[in-house]
Amino acid sequence: MPRVFSLPALLVALALLPAPVRAAGPDQGPEWGVEAGYGFTVHLNRGRSDEDMVLVVPSMGFSLGSHFQYVLEGHFAGFFNPGGYMLGLLPLGVRYSIGEGRTVPYVSIGAGFGWTDLIQLEEIDRRFNFLLQGSLGVRQALSNGQAVTFEARFSHISNAGTVLPNLGLNCVVFLVGWRFP
Questions:
Q1: pTM
Q2: For 158-171, how does the pLDDT look when each residue is reduced to its tens digit (9 = 90+)?
Q3: Fewer CB within 10 Å, N- or C-terminus of the chain?
Q4: CA–CA separation, 46 vs 19, rounded Å?
């Protein structure tokens, strides 16, 4: 019977395959960025929590070619009702830019882990959780080499089945960001 690979396994493979490309010349240094925005829960399971959140995402991207970037992100989320936080790191991330020019759409995925105090929610069963995210965005290059981004992100927080029930908290987040070399 064929074995099916999970999303985290795919992200690890994508991050490791192009390792020789990371050693590009000095002009291919990291791209720094920060995004911030507002999000809300979506009910994809039997969970009933209605959360609003503010998310701040510092990031660092490394070129893997003309369209791919390896992306390392922080995850700093504040929730409003009942109130709480999620602090995390997404060390497995890939961003794919579609096309070239001043305005470029992109798709990204990422996986990582974090710590939260949202254990009073029925969707979150422990303090240590895993983070998965997928994004669609657009990057607008500025004349000084910097860029502005607009992004819609799906964010999933869960314990990956380490404690049952494993419902997970699902959010849609709209972010605006700034990237600079």
A1: 0.82
A2: 999 888 888 899 99
A3: N
A4: 41
